[in-house]
Predict the structure.
Amino acid sequence: MTLDAISHRERNAKILATLGPASSDRETIHALFNAGVDVFRFNFSHGTHADHQARYELVREIEREVGRPVGILLDLQGPKLRLGAIEGGKIAVKIGQTLVLDLEPTIGNSLRLPMPHPEIFAAIKAGDDLLIDDGKVRLRVLEADARSAKVKVLNDGVLSDRKGVNVPGAILPMSALTAKDRQDLDFGLSLGVDWVALSFVQRPEDIEEVKAIVAGRAWTMAKLEKPAAIDSLEAIIAASDGVMVARGDLGVECAPEDVPVLQKRIIRACREIGKPVVVATQMLESMISSPVPTRAEVSDVAGAIYDGADAVMLSAESASGVYPVAAVTMMDRIIRATENDPLQRLTMQAVQSYRDTTTQDAISAAIRTVAETLPVAATVAFTSSGASALRVAHERPRTPILSLTPHISVARRLTLVWGVHSTQAVDVTDLDEIVTHATAAVKRHGFGEPGRAVLVAAGTPFGVSGTTNLLRIVWLQ
């Protein structure tokens, strides 16, 4: 199959949208793509394998119809830490009250509660806090051993059956991959997903574990949602193919006022070394039930674009909301309006791109300089592995980036990357063929007219990954 569409988005940042009950039929998925979705997220915290397979087949069917690569991201659920059962389903607690948490499976009461997670007891110590039900109740650890902990309630509230437990102050001695995640991962890879997002990342070893299983069949994204991950930020980014700022859980375990600071720090760190970064969670939250967003939400999305994020994500807005297509349309409008502001590029370029001492990075830097000097219609990056397109995008050039690759899997992965119009094309074998294909693709995709320049980046020997060593300037006739 060769996918080589003539249309392209009139923006650089990408839209990642979650499919769910409100967006599982062919008509809606097609409408979401037409509204601006570049990558679809499959949230494996919900739905059956049959549900996800049906959505997968619909996306690929639409992909064939539109003639343009469409990315699919598998989002693994990760470990879910929860309280056990409570007598009557819930208990009211008061500030200053003490409780015992333990591993015993018996039903809890007003004096003790079951918490069936030995990993928590192995990690916590006196002075640590436990957050219950997304932080609605905070518990302070007074003393702890391997099987139990005495805690003090820090605020009035209600503790209910099987509510989630967050442990912000500790690194838990557990894998980020559960047995369910491993089954979901095997299933998703058998389908052919393009990205795998890993939840509960605490350390770079978590990413290395999942990458060993994926074995190059997809690119791997670290979801940064725990304070422990921030402590190892640079190492986690280096180990990952991309990063997601998962602000929902991050906002539970960190103070709310810290989340914007952390978001900017993560984006900047990814931008500096050239790893794709996605900003996620509650971006247009009110559009779950409203046809229009709040002005604060619009500013939130724009802020991520000013910072140069590769993509912004919709969760419940597109998965279960009343207005999924309207939410994507609004996201597209916000991105395009923000990118049309001259201040956006000045703000984005405040981040200094770190360059390796490689020919590939030297050419990417030269592309940025030439694009600021000549009337360039587009940069055409011939790529086998996707690395060349990634390095060009790292520089955030003024010119659109038209990525040509013989591999459909690579073309789909690149749909998430800033500025890249990703296409599948035939393999090339010599320089003349490269120039011919590049100029034809630029015209076919509507990027330029006669009299404008095309920058062609490629490598010799042809078809070998990581050999970008050629920059050619061609004028459209």
Notes: The mean pLDDT is 93. The longest strand covers residues 137-144. The chain has three domains: 14-78+176-343, 87-166, 359-475. The two ends are 30 Å apart (CA to CA).
